[in-house]
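During the no-cost extension, the postdoctoral fellow (Dr. R.K.) reprocessed legacy sequence entries with the updated structure-token encoder. One reprocessed record is reproduced below for audit purposes.
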Amino acid sequence: MLNKDKLFVEVGSYQNNKYGNMVCGDCVLLKKCVGENRNIAVLSDGLGSGVKANVLSTMTASMAMNFRVRHEPIIRTVKTIMKTLPVDSVRNISYSTFTIVDVDNNGEAKIVEFDNPPLLLVRNGKIHQFPTSDTIIRKEGLTNGLDERRIKLSDVTLKKEDRLVFYSDGVSQSGIGNMDMPFGWEENIYQFIEDIIEKNPYISARELSKRIVKQAELNDILKPKDDTSCVIMYVREPRRLLICTGPPFSESKDKYLAEIVSSYRGKKIVCGGTTSQILSRELNREITVDIDDVVAGLPPKSTMEGIDLMTEGIITLGALGEILKAGMPKDLNGQGPAWDMFRMILDADIIDLVVGTKINVAHQDPTLPVELEIRRNVVKNIAALLEEKFMKDVRLQFI
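Re-encoded structure tokens follow.
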């Protein structure tokens, strides 16, 4: 059984468009059902490529996700997808492939696969087979077998350090026709994954999925012949991050705040000049300001013993919120304190937000822009984005 305080399911994905296309014909949807402690991932590959494939895959993935969130039977889900999708005018078929993985708080993974490359279970650094059962589903009203779907259903009990790896055929068929891989990458991808994990046993789901998609791009000589997507779910001990911002409502709580920061087991970020001064006083540690670190109009970072990142408060948090709102970028090369926070957040699983509730008079100045919300609202928005878009386990404490 997975205990969310001891083990965590990290979900990471990466995508690349077919060469010359502005949109990706694959769709990846990830959702964390906070109340049930479930992680759901859906990967759908639309027929063809470009806008039409994107519409097909998005419709399929959205329906699959919505049905799975509500615990609807998978047979009903597949039939609804078959009935809803339009018919391709050239091939006279109407479908997009999909893989659905639903992992609950007991580590039980329910897997549904339709026409995507087989899902891989990586255990002890090696690819393992697991039993699947086939089910034939026919579109209502048809009996000639021309519009039937064979889906694979699986149940897997996950253990610590297990990984589930699934991808679109743009990955497995990359490099097809090349002298060294005439039938595509499908024969060698298993060894590629095992080699990476052997060299870096604790590689994150996000980084491993990116490495797989980037290698597929290299197989196609940097001109992908199809949309490529990879999703990975990785069971491991959680990485913790503390983000502390704002002075406590009462000065009598300053010592309590310092105790939280000093005793925290994980990486630590402190946002806010007043908060930093309180910690400096209570912990008897000196603050050093990096005056050369003025990037993109944000105040510079500071350093303090035992703190991994120390920044200005509300302006930097607002910039972080904008980065989170934009979703996962293609690269993480952004500069400045907000981007430093974002990179640390991506590497964390459990994020503890400790927010002081003392009102800063400066934040109530009517001449300030409307988007400069008070700290409490900014942090609540950040917490919601971290849970909904980045599938983090967020714990919010106001003091």
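The two ends are 33 Å apart (CA to CA). The longest helix spans residues 50-69. The remaining legacy entries will be reprocessed before the final report is submitted.
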